[in-house]
Hints:
single chain
Amino acid sequence: xxxxxxxxxxxxxxxxxxxxxxxxxxxxxxxxxxxxxxxxxxxxxxxxxxxxxxxxxxxxxxxxxxxxxxxxxxxxxxxxxxxxxxxxxxxxxxxxxxxxxxxxxxxxxxxxxxxxxxxxxxxxxxxxxxxxxxxxxxxxxxxxxxxxxxxxxxxxxxxxxxxxxxxxxxxxxxxxxxxxxxxxxxxxxxxxxxxxxxxxxxxxxxxxxxxxxxxxxxxxxxxxxxxxxxxxxxx
Length: 235
């Protein structure tokens, strides 16, 4: 199929099917949040909106990129989110790339958010839907982030059929600038980065659900979608 791979600045139309990829770390974090029991994730356009949504809805939680900040319950780190009990909770997420990309295509008929941990399930979901060509939104570095492009191409190859060797794609992600920046943050003791973040972002098919974004009451809401024939455990 003639899939498109575009950065956020290159989105000039509304695609029919969009897969928004953020490996390090937004949509790895989102998948972990669902595995920890979150019911839904609301994607916010700004930190101010995230805090306003949390404050107006009792029981909602909010997370952001970077260091911990007043009003936010946690940060955009899979290593930190995996230890939380989010059973039945709504999480508001604001990041610098992933949530921006998802909101940019929020009006598309079908929007999925993806990373390596849900790559196989994302491809199976799209096959089940008979979606045809996909627009992959490569969110990092204006579409040049090697970890996001590697994941997008890996999913695209799955959609096109045949066996796909994941190792070359993971190598590109592991040697990416984003991975180096996260590792450097750990060495420097930055808050908001966990020592396991890079490794968690490079796990493949950890979860057997896809993540579908839809409009609900004027909000862009991400929910897990069960996908048949998956062998990974989502729990």
